[in-house]
């Protein structure tokens, strides 16, 4: 793939600026003595070749846009040597490979999302919304997300709650084995594969595999593609409103590849009688928001689940008969 003249100029500008900002001594090179020789600030192209363990001239060709479709390991080494930001990392991939990077450059960036997300979701009304990090921990959520679950049962980790919490599996998520599990599990499988060194994801997968209910289903249904159709639905039993459907859309924060923004709304099923009876409904509705933190909540998996489930025909999309949502 050849870069256009404009793309080559843009690539060179970003890389030159980053090289100039880095003190060679911070990378183990001796400080320059006075006298003749290179005067430009920062790392030289030859020093970049040394850092990348590449033949002389390799980095020069890359910076000038002459290295066609550079391999992933090369881009990673360049990005870490130049201490690129997540935005610059994404720019590097999109410009040189015409695709998004498979993972965040700095893993903590995907688990340290801005507190602005909670402030934003505090202003959202009528939407079961949450943001989860790469390990599926909820870092921000709306009040409607909290009320979706039985009192006190909203989990701090959406994947753990959807796959391992017995009450959520049997009470909140309808048709769990045939609709929810096949829809949600591939998201965990993909996350583990993309981040093989992540201890939190590895522990979560081990717990799922060890679970007598979830384990067999995970082995059977986790290794599938992840098509996602925004607006598809999964059957639920809302803690306040009773049986219906959760309609979900997913997005990804720009600065945290692998994290997810889940926006869902509840749609009542007029053909189903409410299973939310008196005490439980009141309890769910009257739960105080005091003490509610980002450690509560799985409305998130709704979106996750629905995505993969749509691939196997387990998820109902708008406009289709309700009986088509059930697995046969």
What does this structure look like?
- The protein has 328 residues and is an alpha+beta fold.
- It folds into 2 domains: 5-101, lambda repressor-like DNA-binding domains (434 Repressor (Amino-terminal Domain), Orthogonal Bundle), CATH 1.10.260; 109-325, Beta-Lactamase (2-Layer Sandwich).
- It has 14 helices and 5 strands.
- A 5-stranded antiparallel β-sheet has the order 2-1-5-4-3.
- Mean pLDDT is 80; it is low at 282-328.
SSE string, helix = H, strand = E? Answer: HHHHHHEEHHHHHHEEEHH
Give me the side-by-side strand order of the main sheet: 2-1-5-4-3
Specify the biggest β-sheet. 5 strands, antiparallel
Number of strands: 5
From the N-terminal CA to the C-terminal CA, the straight-line distance is 46 Å
Identify low-pLDDT runs. 282-328
Principal-axis shape: elongated
Oligomer: single chain
Mean pLDDT: 80
Mind telling me which CATH architecture of the largest domain this is? 2-Layer Sandwich
Number of helices: 14
The CATH C-level name of the largest domain is Alpha Beta
Beta-strand residue fraction:
5-15%
Total discrete domains: 2
Helix content: 40-55%
* SSE-based structural type: alpha+beta
- CATH topology label of the largest domain: Beta-Lactamase
| Cα-based radius of gyration, to the nearest Å | 24 Å
């Amino acid at each position: 793939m050849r870069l256009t003249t404009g793309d080559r100029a843009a690539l060179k500008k970003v890389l030159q600026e980053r090289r100039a900002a880095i003190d060679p001594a911070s990378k183990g090179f001796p400080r320059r003595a006075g006298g003749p020789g290179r005067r430009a600030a920062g790392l030289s192209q030859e020093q970049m070749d040394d850092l990348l363990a590449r033949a002389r001239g390799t980095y020069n060709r890359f910076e000038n846009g002459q290295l066609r479709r550079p391999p992933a390991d090369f881009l990673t080494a360049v990005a870490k040597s130049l201490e690129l930001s997540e935005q610059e990392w994404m720019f590097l991939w999109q410009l040189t490979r015409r695709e998004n990077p498979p993972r965040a450059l700095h893993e903590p960036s995907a688990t340290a999302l801005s507190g602005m997300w909670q402030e934003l979701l505090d202003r959202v009304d009528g939407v079961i919304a949450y943001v989860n990090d790469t390990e599926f921990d909820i870092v921000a959520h709306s009040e409607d997300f909290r009320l979706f679950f039985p009192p006190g049962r909203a989990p701090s980790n959406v994947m753990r709650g959807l796959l391992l919490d017995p009450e959520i599996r049997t009470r909140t998520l309808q048709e769990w084995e045939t609709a929810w599990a096949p829809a949600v599990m591939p998201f965990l499988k993909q996350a583990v594969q993309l981040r093989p060194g992540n201890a939190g994801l590895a522990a979560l997968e081990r717990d799922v595999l060890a679970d007598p209910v979830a384990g067999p289903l995970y082995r059977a249904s986790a290794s599938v593609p992840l098509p996602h159709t925004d607006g598809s639905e999964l059957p639920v039993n809302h803690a306040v409103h009773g049986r219906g459907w959760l309609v979900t859309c997913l997005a990804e924060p720009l600065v945290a590849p692998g994290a997810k923004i889940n926006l869902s709304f509840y749609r009542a099923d007029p053909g189903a009688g409410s299973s939310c009876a008196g005490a439980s409904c009141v309890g769910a509705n009257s739960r105080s928001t005091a003490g509610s933190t980002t450690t509560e909540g799985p409305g998130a998996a709704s979106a996750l689940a629905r995505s993969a489930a749509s691939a196997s025909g387990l998820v109902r999309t708008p406009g289709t008969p309700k009986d088509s949502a059930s697995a046969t």
